[in-house]
Every structure is written in structure tokens, then in C-alpha cells.
Design goal:
It contains eight helices and 15 strands. The two termini are about 35 Å apart. The structure holds 1-O-pyrophosphono-5-O-phosphono-alpha-D-ribofuranose and zinc ion.
Length: about 290
């Protein structure tokens, strides 16, 4: 029991699918039926707790869970004693101030003396203090976006991702106050065995993340252009060059970031590269 890691993930919502896919991509197998609150992996000492995202920082700080996957929005708002082990790059969103579409926005002073509904009283409070705006923060735990239309508040401060929730509720975003993405967090103290398991998990997560941002590129090139092409796609150590059956031609294989590939594509073609294939990489260990 001691040597099983417990990870808290969001039960349902913006984070849950990506959190579980990341763990699956790490080669960890588990079953999560709908409505299940707990589950265990079958091939890694990992136990899952499915919780509301708001509760995850607290569970990890208390040591009920060793690890958690949560948005930085909840992390900063709850301000618990946990360690950020890795930023995960998904569930990107922003915390923004929004007002009814019909209002004219005049700048931050608009909020002076206003009533703002939010589930993020700490982040909003700190922000307003820094900007020297006095406003009433009305804390509510959900459906913040309907507060203006029912007369509960004159503005809101809430998570915006696609922006469709604001639009459907006749609101417009006027100030972004915080940016967030998902992060893997951990309890500050763990025994050696747990630490070792966390390292194993992080190693796999890094391999998945690195793989996602890289591509395996294969192309054919005339031999006289090889030097130029190799300089454009340097690869991990150096590209692989194999002779083609056709005299004077080679096949060049390399690994590079997708960005690097697009930046160099015109030069590659100008240098004589053809039959270019770009293949996804599942995992990458350097
Ligand atoms: C946020 C926010 C909105 C929605 C905005 O909720 O409260 O409901 O996301 O997304 P959109 O801009 O794409 O429409 P969140 O996922 O944080 O859920 P929770 O507040 O229930 O935890
Ligand atoms: Zn939430």
C-alpha cells in the first residue's frame, strides 16, 4: 500500500480527458467507468481518485493524494502547499473580467465600486488590489456567467477558453488577468519509493511530450545536395542517409520539431528534396 502512488484527476470537465490520455500514452493501463470515484492501474503502481478540480490542490497538500493534475487557475486560487512537478501544456485558458455586451468599456476604472461575481476571489482580489480598484467581490461556486443577467452582479471574472460561454450569456471579455494551463503537482514530502515512482512517471511524460512536439521526416535527395539538406535538418545526433536503388540519390531520415520543419520546407525543396514524408512520433527519449 505504501508503495502505490495516488493521483487525483478531474472527474469530468475541461481537464479530465487530456489528463487521462496523457497517463494512457505513458503506457499505463486502467479502467475508468463513468461515475467511478476510484480506480487502479493494472501495470503500474498507480491509483486514481476522480475529484472536482477545485478540490485537487487540497487533497494533494493534505497527502490524501501524492499527485494531482490540475489547472494553474485552481492551484494559484487555492494557494496550497504543493510542488509543481511539470507544466503539461493542455487545458490552456485564461481568467478574465467580462461585462454585459451592451456596456461601454472605459478601462479598468469601469470596475470601481462595481459588484463582480467569481469563483476566484483570491486571484481577482490580488489583481484589483494591485491595480488599486475597489470593487465588491461576490464569490459563487458555479454558473458565474449568469450572474449579470439575474441581477446578482454587474460583471464577472471567470475562466474563458473558446469564449462561447461568455457569448451565449451576452457578455464580453474586457481584461485578461491570469493565464493557465494544466500542471502535474505533488505533495511536498514523499518517501524514497514514491519519489522513485514519480521519477519513472515523469520520465514517461517527458518522452510523450517531446515526441508530440517532434516529427520524423523522410525525404529523397540527389547526392550533390546532401550537405545542404543535412544542414537544414540536423536531427538528434545527425540524420540517417541511405542510398536509393536509383544511382545518385539518397533517402535522408531525421527528427526535428514541427516548427523547424515548416521553417525549412522551402529551402529543402529548393535544394532538391522530394518525396517528403512527415511522420508523428509517439515517444522520444534523448
Ligand atoms: C469554465 C468556465 C466556463 C467555461 C468557459 O469552467 O466557468 O463555464 O469553462 O469555457 P468556454 O470559453 O470554452 O466556453 P471550468 O471548465 O473551469 O469548469 P468548473 O468551473 O465547473 O470547474
Ligand atoms: Zn472547477
Amino acid at each position: 500500500m505504501e508503495n502505490i502512488l495516488r493521483i487525483a484527476v478531474q472527474k469530468s470537465g475541461r481537464l479530465s480527458d487530456d489528463s487521462l490520455s496523457l497517463i494512457k500514452e505513458c503506457g499505463i493501463k486502467f479502467y475508468n467507468g463513468t461515475g467511478k470515484l476510484k480506480s487502479s492501474a493494472t501495470n503500474f503502481p498507480l491509483e486514481f481518485l476522480f475529484l472536482r478540480d477545485d478540490d485537487i490542490p487540497g487533497y494533494v497538500a493534505d497527502g490524501v493524494a501524492d499527485l494531482g493534475i490540475v489547472g494553474e487557475n485552481e492551484l494559484v486560487e487555492k494557494n496550497k502547499d504543493v510542488v509543481v512537478l511539470k507544466k503539461l501544456g493542455f487545458s490552456k485558458c485564461r481568467l478574465s473580467l467580462a461585462i454585459p455586451k451592451s456596456e461601454t468599456y472605459t478601462g479598468l476604472s469601469f470596475f470601481q465600486g462595481k459588484n463582480i461575481a467569481t469563483s476566484y476571489p483570491k486571484i481577482l482580489g490580488d489583481y484589483l488590489k494591485e491595480k488599486a480598484i475597489q470593487a465588491d467581490i461576490h464569490e459563487i461556486s458555479g454558473s458565474v456567467e449568469i450572474a449579470p443577467s439575474i441581477g446578482l452582479a454587474e460583471a464577472i471574472c471567470d475562466i474563458v477558453s473558446s469564449g462561447s460561454t461568455l457569448m451565449m450569456n451576452g457578455l464580453k471579455e474586457v481584461e485578461e488577468i491570469f493565464r493557465s494551463e494544466a500542471a502535474l503537482i505533488g505533495h511536498p514530502l514523499m518517501n524514497q519509493q514514491k519519489k522513485h515512482l514519480v521519477e519513472k512517471l515523469l520520465f514517461r511524460m517527458n518522452a510523450v511530450q517531446k515526441g508530440k512536439s517532434s516529427k520524423y521526416v523522410l525525404l529523397n535527395a540527389p547526392n550533390h545536395a546532401l550537405d545542404k539538406i543535412v544542414s537544414l535538418i540536423p536531427g538528434m545526433r545527425s540524420p540517417t542517409i541511405l542510398p536509393l536503388a536509383q544511382e545518385g540519390w539518397s533517402s535522408v531520415h531525421s527528427v526535428l520539431s514541427e516548427e523547424q520543419f515548416w521553417e525549412n520546407i522551402e529551402e529543402l525543396r529548393a535544394a532538391g528534396a522530394e518525396g517528403i514524408l512527415v511522420v508523428p512520433i509517439e515517444k522520444m527519449i534523448l
